């Protein structure tokens, strides 16, 4: 009897154990199924857009560029709080609909990151992105927006928010054609306005004489933001450097229509205007890549030394 009782208890225990195990397995299956089903409901709430999403590791990139700028490139500018600068950039767009950004969103960032720009150094540009920055790298007498802390941090970078967690959209961001008030476009408008307002003395602009639609286009940031915000009390002269590609096309020269239009706008603001076709110091830089072209000959034709 005691033997039988013992084996009956053993059987009961075995049944109990098997029962618990089955329940556990079922529970695990239910949890796994629920999480697999639940997952697609959590993240695709992010809005979908046509442009590239936020640059990966945005905070590290912004912080790294900020510290590089203030510690290595321009230590003479003195202390800036890079951590606060990143926070204020983030606060401008995180968790917001990326079509509802306003200039006010960037005001704290503008105040934290701005620094003085010496007179005579401001260099504006339109459609000469590569050439103008090669030039400011080789001649520190001139500064573009991308050579200031604000412009340097944001150069070549994308960012936008989204109302759902984690508040930043790394998949896609709106193009300007989808909505004008997107984080990037508003930032560049605000930063360009501030850069133009800071200009004083002689300012220069490098335009592209190989653009068929004209070197000065009314839709450009230069025309629609920068020219309008030059301060007549501070700016005295505007020097236009009209650069054509080596070997053409030669779409516009200083006597061209869009340049005449620009000149009249600037002269109305009482600036003295000088336009130079293929400003030689910049052309020499173009010639680095086209040394054999006739436009790049160091001397004009001479038969004196055969
Ligand atoms: C988007 O990202 C791709 C791949 O990283 C890059 O080649 C392209 O230039 C980017 N487009 C824009 C508009 O930044
Ligand atoms: C950079 O971003 C990736 C995801 O895109 C992430 O896995 C990684 O941890 C980030 N690196 C740092 C240092 O934050
Ligand atoms: C700016 O240029 C003007 C005209 O060339 C010159 O008179 C002035 O001294 C310059 N200012 C500075 C700060 O270099
Ligand atoms: C002018 O614009 C064209 C087309 O965008 C570009 O390929 C060229 O490099 C530009 N030229 C200069 C001098 O920047
Ligand atoms: C942005 O891209 C251009 C062209 O590739 C490059 O010359 C420049 O250094 C980049 N800017 C920064 C801040 O890395
Ligand atoms: C220089 O000589 C070349 C070939 O002899 C000629 O095509 C060109 O027009 C000349 N340029 C000038 C500025 O005289």
Automatic annotation (TrEMBL):
It is a single-pass type II membrane protein. Its EC number is 2.4.99.20, 3.2.2.6. The keyword Membrane applies. The chain crosses the membrane at residues 15-36. It is found in: Membrane. It catalyses: NAD(+) + H2O = ADP-D-ribose + nicotinamide + H(+). GO terms for biological process: positive regulation of B cell proliferation. The keyword Ion transport does not apply. It comes from the Eukaryota. Keywords: Disulfide bond, Glycoprotein, Hydrolase, Membrane, NAD, NADP, Signal-anchor, Transferase, Transmembrane, Transmembrane helix. InterPro entries: ADP-ribosyl_cyclase. One of its GO terms (molecular function) is phosphorus-oxygen lyase activity. GO terms for cellular component: plasma membrane. Belongs to the ADP-ribosyl cyclase family. Homodimer. This is ADP-ribosyl cyclase/cyclic ADP-ribose hydrolase 1. The lineage of its organism: Eukaryota, Metazoa, Chordata, Craniata, Vertebrata.
């Amino acid at each position: 009897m005691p033997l039988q009782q013992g084996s009956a208890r053993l059987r009961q225990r075995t049944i109990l154990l098997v029962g618990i195990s089955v329940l556990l397995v079922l529970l695990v299956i239910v949890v796994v199924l629920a999480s697999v089903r639940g997952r697609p409901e959590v993240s695709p709430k992010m809005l979908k857009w046509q442009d590239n999403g936020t640059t990966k590791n945005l905070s590290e990139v912004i912080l790294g560029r900020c510290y590089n700028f203030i510690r290595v490139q321009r230590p003479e500018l003195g202390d800036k709080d890079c951590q606060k600068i990143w926070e204020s950039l983030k606060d401008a767009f995180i968790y917001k609909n990326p079509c509802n950004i306003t200039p006010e969103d960037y005001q704290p960032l503008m105040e934290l990151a701005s620094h003085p720009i010496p007179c005579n150094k401001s260099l504006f540009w339109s459609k000469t992105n590569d050439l103008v920055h090669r030039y400011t790298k080789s001649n520190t007498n001139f500064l573009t927006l991308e050579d200031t802390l604000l412009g340097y941090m944001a150069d070549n970078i994308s960012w936008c928010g989204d109302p759902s967690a984690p508040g930043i959209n790394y998949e896609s961001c709106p193009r300007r054609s989808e909505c004008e008030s997107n984080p990037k476009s508003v930032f560049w408008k605000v930063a360009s306005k501030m850069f133009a307002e800071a200009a004083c003395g002689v300012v220069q602009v490098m335009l592209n004489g190989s653009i068929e639609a004209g070197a000065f286009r009314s839709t450009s940031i230069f025309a629609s933001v920068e020219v309008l915000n030059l301060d007549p009390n501070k700016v005295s002269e505007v020097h236009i450097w009209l650069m054509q590609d080596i070997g053409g096309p030669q779409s516009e020269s200083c006597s061209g229509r869009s340049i005449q239009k620009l000149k009249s706008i600037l002269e109305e603001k009482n600036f003295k205007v000088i336009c130079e076709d293929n400003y030689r110091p910049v052309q020499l830089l173009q010639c680095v890549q086209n040394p054999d072209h006739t436009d790049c000959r160091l001397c004009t034709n001479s038969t004196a030394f055969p």
